[in-house]
Specification:
It is built from 15 helices and 16 strands. With 392 residues, the chain is of the alpha+beta class. The chain has an 8-stranded antiparallel sheet with strand order 13-12-9-10-11-14-16-15, sandwiched between helices. Strands 3-2-1-4 form a 4-stranded parallel sheet, with helices on both faces. The chain has a 4-stranded antiparallel sheet with strand order 5-8-6-7, with helices on one face. Helix 1 crosses helix 12 and helix 7 runs antiparallel to helix 8.
């Protein structure tokens, strides 16, 4: 009789909707071994019931503590089979632990390629894909010269960073000089030409051989930077129809970055003038927010369960037909909307999935409340968005 697979879950309680990974892994016979700095009593009852054992450390940033926790699990349960957080913040911690305990998955030497935007560019180029021009700069003078080469406006962001934080659209030499005054001195930045286009993503799950077993996409009402700058309404959605060109490019990227038995989230520019797709960056984890739940609603399946199947037996059972568009519609507390949440739910009762409350750290982008809805057509979706965002 084969032993249960030992799956170490780093920070299994965050974000809350990722707790289901522990539930489904446990249901599929895994030893689910959680490590985090949260008190055990603070974990939800569902998560506590889904964990085989939980090891609390005082500080997740102290590698020795986390290393000792994994060592304890290895001593008690035997060889560790997987270590995963599904979280951008812990990518390097996951890789370091996998390296030290010789566990399948990305190791230390893989991190440069999937964490730094400059190295991502090199891999995209090597795969024959066109990327935005730009590079890392190491001094103010080098930045001035690079801005002259690229022409304003330019985008400046950390070479290794998450999301849109610490990202700037610089429109003039004066704004560049101002940036030098408030940038973080210890952060290495990259400067890129400004691409006038929308962001579209190619997301999904690959099996242990790098075959894509599930794919999806995200479309956004506008860039996150613009939403934050004007404190505006936003929406984003999982579309039913995904362009064959995006799928083709996405497959090239999955192969180029050797994505194996894990989720991926590739961002592309869709250039406004030409409609061509240009790779922007890779994230080797599921998309954030409620996206992973939106996949389930869009496809009437359980991606958490399918992930457990992939890790356990490298099989994906669901038949994906993309029957629904699923949209997240933000609602800001400081806006004077015509229609209440109740009115929206009553009018579109057969299409509303749920109303979500958003934690404060995300509310600037996602709104204090969010409406999840699904529709068969884009026209139906736009009708709900317009009704929800109508102002007095």
């Amino acid at each position: 009789m084969s032993r249960p697979l030992n799956f170490v879950m780093i920070s299994p309680h965050f974000p809350t909707n990722f707790e289901t990974f522990a539930v489904r892994l446990r249901e599929n016979g895994f030893n689910t071994l959680g490590i985090a700095d949260a008190p055990y009593e603070s974990l939800s009852e569902g998560l506590r019931n889904a964990l085989t054992e939980y090891y609390r450390v005082d500080n997740m940033e102290d590698y020795d503590q986390v290393y000792r926790a994994v060592g304890y699990f290895a001593h008690k349960y035997g060889r560790i089979d997987r270590i995963e957080s599904h979280n951008e913040y812990w990518l390097e911690l996951d890789a370091k632990l996998r390296t030290d305990f010789n566990v399948f998955g990305y190791k230390n030497e893989d991190m440069h390629a999937i964490k730094t935007k400059s190295q991502m560019k090199e891999i995209f180029r090597a795969a024959g894909l066109k990327v935005a021009q730009g590079r890392v700069f190491h001094s103010d003078e080098e930045a001035r010269q690079l801005a002259q080469e690229l022409n304003f406006p330019v985008i400046i962001k950390p070479d290794s960073g998450v999301g849109a934080s610490d990202t700037y659209k610089i429109k003039s030499a004066q704004e560049l000089e101002a940036f030098f005054g408030y940038r973080h001195p210890e952060v290495q930045y990259i400067m890129e030409e400004f691409i006038d286009g929308d962001i579209v993503t190619f997301d999904g799950l690959a099996d242990i051989n790098g075959n894509i077993v599930f794919y999806s996409s995200l479309e956004y009402s506008e860039a996150v930077l613009d939403t934050v700058a004007k404190d505006g309404d936003m929406f984003y959605y999982v579309p039913r129809e995904i362009s064959p060109k995006l799928v083709e490019l996405g497959k090239q990227c999955v192969e180029a970055f050797k994505v194996r038995e894990r989720f991926f989230h590739f961002e592309f520019f869709r250039v406004k003038q030409t409609n061509e797709l240009m790779p922007l960056e890779i994230n080797c984890r599921p998309p954030g927010g409620l996206t992973i739940d939106m996949w389930n609603y869009a496809n009437d399946f359980d991606v958490f369960n399918e992930y457990a199947h992939i890790v356990k037996e490298n099989k994906f059972y669901s038949h994906i037909t993309h029957p629904w568009n699923v949209v997240y519609i933000s609602r800001k507390a400081n806006k004077n909307y015509v229609n209440s949440i109740q009115a929206i739910c009553e009018r579109f009762t057969d299409r509303i999935i749920s109303v979500q409350t958003v934690p404060g750290i995300f509310a600037k982008i996602m709104g204090e409340e969010g409406i999840l809805a699904r529709t068969e057509t884009i026209e139906q979706m736009r009708e709900i968005i317009q009704f929800a965002h109508a102002k007095q």
